[in-house]
Amino acid sequence: MTSDASTEQKPYHHGDLRRAIIETALDMLQEQKGWQFTLREIARRAEVSHSAPYRHFPDKTALLHELALIGFDRLREALVAALDPAADAPACLQALAYAHLGFGAANPDLYRLMFNADAGEPSDIHLDARTQAPFRLVIEVLERGQREGTIRSRSALGQATACWAHLHGLTMLAIDGRLVPEKVGDHAIEDALTTLLDGLLSGESAASGRSPERP
Amino acid sequence: MTSDASTEQKPYHHGDLRRAIIETALDMLQEQKGWQFTLREIARRAEVSHSAPYRHFPDKTALLHELALIGFDRLREALVAALDPAADAPACLQALAYAHLGFGAANPDLYRLMFNADAGEPSDIHLDARTQAPFRLVIEVLERGQREGTIRSRSALGQATACWAHLHGLTMLAIDGRLVPEKVGDHAIEDALTTLLDGLLSGESAASGRSPERP
DNA sequence: ACCTGAACACCGTTCAAGT
DNA sequence: ACCTGAACACCGTTCAAGT
């Protein structure tokens, strides 16, 4: 009678503390908005001492990095799920845009963390394939669109950077409550996306139903 | 002989501590990149006790708000300075874009703070006229461009939101070192701005020298 | 190999007391 | 009216000691 998962007092060794810490952190990130991220609170909630996490992460920013990478994995999944392989590039871009905005709205604190992790020092996280994966999706769609002729022929990398910056900026502004209708109108987000598409679509496909004029 | 500014030990009352705190904070924000903003360090540097700032700001976020507002004032000044009244709207937009990016690059920590102040709770800072002033500049240029015929006729508010999001996103990505040339190419920023302009310029003025193709 | 508890050097904030 | 100093409840991080 040394291990009964339900009634026993918890063992000295947690077993899989690393995973538990990460999951606890992600949970708290989703629950309490504006939570001041603190290692001690995570440890408390995971029912270990406040120094236990240091056996699994060298310091706080290491955990932050790990969470950010997981965030980028999830963003990529959300984007992939939004892509319809049968659709043409412009439709895909629109789907990507709404999926990106939706991800930010659903996980505001995680999203902020993703784009904030170690904002000070130079780190190699930005070069990680996982961090870059969502961005690569955008590139691929644009390149396909250029082959289809639906996307203006320009540097696809530049267009992808434009999309990425546009969506990131819009998501951040939305998360932070800066797109107040009183100042920015009721259709600001849709209209902003229209302008993004205006810049991407090749001459002919632009004027149609995709981007209605709203003068 | 009760007050000799140079040799006397400093008086019990600072005189204009509020202003001194703000200036010290701005200085430190510019000097040390990635500085963890702390009230106690500001007080130390201003040579007052760590509780003195509380006579002038109810709490830390109040100071943050004040600094953010000053940041928006300065951003507006930088943008205004970049505008050539003789230039047409597209040229103005390009000037605004580079001024915005330049401001972020020159004041990365202040810029981050501006768009981060009290990111948690709802606050009225986003409605402040000072916060909105730079955005209004963009609106005005776009409206003028629509009158000129150089800017596509769409909701100017939507176009302004698109510009704002695009520039904010690009600035943040640049500040955070996320636009690494290995992944994004050497001309990512210029190309991204080209795509932005592609979306804003009206049909005819687009193809010309403003936005060179770089396939 | 993994975890704890005390300890250290910090924070933000409050409050009686000083000038 | 403005400022100080001690005090409180927190952090992140380290390290000897426990299992």
UniProtKB/TrEMBL annotation, chains A, B:
GO molecular function: DNA-binding transcription factor activity; transcription cis-regulatory region binding
This protein's record includes keyword DNA-binding: yes
Keyword Hydrolase: no
InterPro entries according to UniProt: Homeodomain-like_sf, HTH-type_TetR-like_transc_reg, HTH_TetR, MT1864/Rv1816-like_C, Tet_transcr_reg_TetR-rel_C_sf
DNA-binding region(s), residue ranges: 38-57
Coiled coil stretches, renumbered: none
Key words, A-Z: DNA-binding, Transcription, Transcription regulation
Protein name: TetR/AcrR family transcriptional regulator
Species: Paraburkholderia silviterrae
